[in-house]
């Protein structure tokens, strides 16, 4: 380092002064004067050098002040920039936190919306599948219900047709029976008995058929009621299914609306999210740019600070060296001037005081510069610590954001798993419900099919039974018509025989009426015949347990026997006619024998028919028939009442004919008048049941003539 001029001059002069000390005082004075002049020159030089030094110090002070001002301005600017950077960094961090939280919320909402969308889509697909399955089931149920209704309607229609046909057949049968009754009532009592028997049999058959048909109808009605109940149940189930399908359709519609709303909301949120994401990206890019700028600015500021610090350190080192050199020169000057204190005290006092002041000022400036350097280093360290803290905070925030994102992802995954598990459970429950409904439908379908099959089989059986009953009724009608035709032929033959017998009896009666004057005694055969006829006639009047056709047939035979007996030769009024009667007797014997044989055959047929009838009618029915036919029997009394009843039926019978030629001396007894209510013959029954004419015994003797065919 270069020394100042005054120090060099002072050293040279000090070297020169050493030999001066050995000289004399004169030389000393001269030399002192010279030295004083030289010292004056040196002082002038020192003053000049001090002034130059002061100028340099002033320039240095000015430079230092300018440097301090520039450093203060730069530090203020740096502080302002750092504060603005801190505030901006805090704002950026707050905005980053806010944006990160908002982004996390948006991500949560997006994941929630996606999960809800997925769940809604899955539920919508499931509901569509369920709706399709339920629609198919509903269609199947509708087809089954329609088929069951059609079958039930067909069964009801068939039953109605069967009932109508049965009613028509009943009406036809009743009309036929009425016709048969009318026709049979026109025939004899035997045919009426047969008709009654057939009516009773048909009535019983009808009752049994009616009961059977009523039972079957009740069973069919019960089955129809059961089918109707099942149909109502099926319709109720179908209505329930329709309501469920409507509710499902409503739910599907609501879900579709919610899905559409969610789609629109999702689109809006997507648009908002996209806009916010773009804004966030722009803000993040701007923040990154500002951060890069701040980092570059801080790096540049740090470089500048380091350069300024290095420059200040260099300047401080230079100042320290200058101070050291100045202190060394001052110490040398002090040592040199100690000998000249007294002489140069006045001269050097001012210069030393100024130097001290300068040194003090330089020391103060150095201390200030050192303090400024320490403060700058402290500020730099604080800025570095703040930068490290900000970096740590950024790292912590990034780690916290990553942790929050990870926790949010884990929570969303857990929620997604739980929702998937719940949806799977719901799907399993819905599948189980579908299986249960299918099983219930199958379980309901099988008994319905079995019932329909059973009803169809029963319907077929009923149709077979109806056809069999129709066939049996047709065969019975044919057999009845054949029997009626046979009876009509038999009745026509009997009526012909009876007409022939009546004609023969009438001819005999007309031929022999004038010649009978007395009545011979009745023969035992005649009494037996009359007692048989009267007993058969009294069988009805005594009211025993005989039947209607028995009484009517006996009355017919009684009428025939009475007519034949009355048509026999009546006793003449005089005994002169006896010879003629005895002459006519052999001629009419063959005719009488034939009539007896015919009557005997009729009696045998009547007894056989009675035995048949007894097995058909009950006593109560016999009493009812007796009460119904008592009036007709009373009206049909007389000689030919039974004969006319065969052809008249239930019509009004003609008045009874007058009795044939009776003897003028014949007087009926009161008992005869009381008991002979049928008008079969003009006689009465005795205790033995023998028919007699009058109570006088002479009458029997008068009627006992050889001309009586029954007497022989």
Automatic annotation (TrEMBL):
**Extent of Pro residues compositional bias:** 653-667
Q: Does the keyword Coiled coil apply?
A: yes
Q: Where is the composition biased (Polar residues)?
A: 669-679
Transport among the record's keywords?
A: no
Chain positions covered by the region annotation Disordered: 57-78, 509-545, 651-712
Superkingdom of the organism of origin:
Eukaryota
Q: Which portions of this protein are annotated as coiled-coil regions?
A: 29-56, 89-197, 238-297, 366-504
Q: What protein name applies here? A: Unnamed protein product
What are the protein's UniProt keywords? Coiled coil
Output compositional bias ranges, type Basic and acidic residues.
58-78
């Amino acid at each position: 380092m270069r020394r100042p001029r005054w120090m060099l001059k002072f050293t040279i002069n000090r070297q020169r002064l050493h030999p001066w000390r050995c000289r004399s005082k004169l030389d000393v004075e001269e030399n002192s004067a010279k030295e004083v002049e030289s010292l004056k020159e040196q002082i002038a030089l020192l003053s000049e050098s001090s002034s130059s030094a002061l100028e340099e110090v002033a320039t240095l002070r000015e430079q230092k002040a300018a440097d301090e001002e520039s450093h203060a301005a730069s530090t203020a600017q740096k502080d302002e920039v750092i504060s603005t950077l801190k505030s901006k960094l805090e704002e950026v961090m707050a905005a980053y936190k806010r944006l990160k939280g908002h982004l996390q919320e948006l991500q949560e909402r997006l994941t929630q919306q996606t999960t809800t969308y997925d769940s809604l889509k899955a539920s919508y697909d499931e509901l569509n599948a369920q709706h399709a399955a339920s629609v198919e089931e509903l269609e199947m149920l509708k087809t089954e219900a329609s088929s069951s209704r059609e079958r039930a309607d067909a069964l009801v229609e068939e039953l109605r047709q069967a009932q109508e046909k049965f009613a028509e057949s009943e009406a036809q049968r009743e009309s036929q029976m009425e016709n048969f009754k009318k026709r049979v009532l026109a025939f004899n009592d035997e045919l009426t008995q047969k008709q009654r028997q057939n009516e009773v049999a048909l009535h019983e058959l009808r009752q049994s058929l009616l009961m059977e048909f009523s039972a079957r109808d009740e069973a069919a009605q019960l089955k129809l009621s059961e089918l109707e109940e099942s149909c109502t149940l099926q319709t109720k189930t179908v209505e329930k299914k329709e309501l469920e399908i409507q509710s499902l359709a409503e739910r599907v519609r609501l879900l579709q609306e919610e899905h559409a709303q969610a789609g629109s909301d999702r689109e809006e949120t997507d648009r908002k999210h996209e806009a916010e994401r773009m804004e966030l990206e722009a803000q993040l890019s701007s923040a990154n740019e500002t951060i890069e700028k701040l980092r570059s600015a801080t790096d540049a500021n740090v470089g500048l600070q380091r350069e300024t610090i290095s420059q200040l350190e260099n300047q401080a080192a230079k100042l320290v060296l200058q101070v050291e050199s100045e202190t060394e020169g001052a110490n040398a000057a002090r040592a040199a001037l100690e000998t000249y204190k007294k002489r140069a005290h006045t001269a050097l006092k001012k210069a030393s005081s100024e130097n001290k002041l300068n040194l003090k000022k330089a020391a103060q400036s150095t201390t200030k510069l050192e303090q400024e350097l320490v403060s700058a280093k402290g500020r730099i360290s604080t800025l570095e610590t703040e930068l490290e803290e900000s970096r740590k905070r950024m790292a912590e925030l990034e780690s916290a954001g990553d942790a929050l994102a990870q926790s949010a992802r884990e929570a969303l995954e857990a929620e997604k798993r739980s929702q998937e598990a719940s949806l799977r459970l719901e799907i399993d429950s819905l599948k189980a419900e579908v299986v249960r409904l299918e099983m219930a439908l199958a379980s309901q379908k099988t008994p319905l099919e079995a019932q329909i099959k059973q009803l169809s089989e029963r319907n077929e059986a009923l149709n077979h039974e109806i056809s069999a009953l129709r066939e049996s009724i047709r065969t019975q009608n044919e057999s009845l018509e054949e029997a009626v035709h046979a009876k009509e032929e038999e009745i026509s033959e009997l009526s012909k025989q009876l007409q022939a017998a009546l004609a023969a009896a009438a001819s005999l009666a007309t031929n022999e009426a004038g010649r009978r004057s007395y009545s011979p005694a009745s023969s035992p055969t005649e009494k037996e015949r009359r007692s048989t006829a009267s007993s058969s006639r009294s069988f009805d009047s005594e009211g025993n347990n005989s039947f209607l056709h028995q009484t009517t047939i006996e009355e017919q035979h009684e009428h025939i026997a009475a007519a034949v007996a009355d048509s026999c030769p009546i006793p003449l009024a005089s005994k002169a006619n006896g010879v003629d009667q005895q002459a006519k007797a052999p001629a009419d014997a063959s005719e009488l024998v034939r009539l007896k044989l015919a009557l005997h055959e009729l009696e045998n047929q009547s007894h056989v028919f009675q035995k048949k009838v007894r097995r058909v009618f009950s006593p109560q029915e016999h009493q009812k028939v007796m009460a119904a036919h008592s009036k007709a029997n009373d009206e049909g009394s007389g000689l030919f009442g039974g004969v006319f009843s065969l052809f008249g039926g239930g019509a009004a019978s003609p008045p009874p004919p007058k009795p044939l030629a009776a003897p003028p001396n014949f007087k009926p007894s009161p008992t005869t008048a009381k008991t002979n209510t049928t008008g079969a013959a003009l006689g009465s029954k005795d205790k033995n049941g023998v028919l007699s004419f009058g109570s006088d015994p002479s009458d029997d003797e008068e009627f006992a003539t050889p001309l009586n065919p029954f007497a022989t």
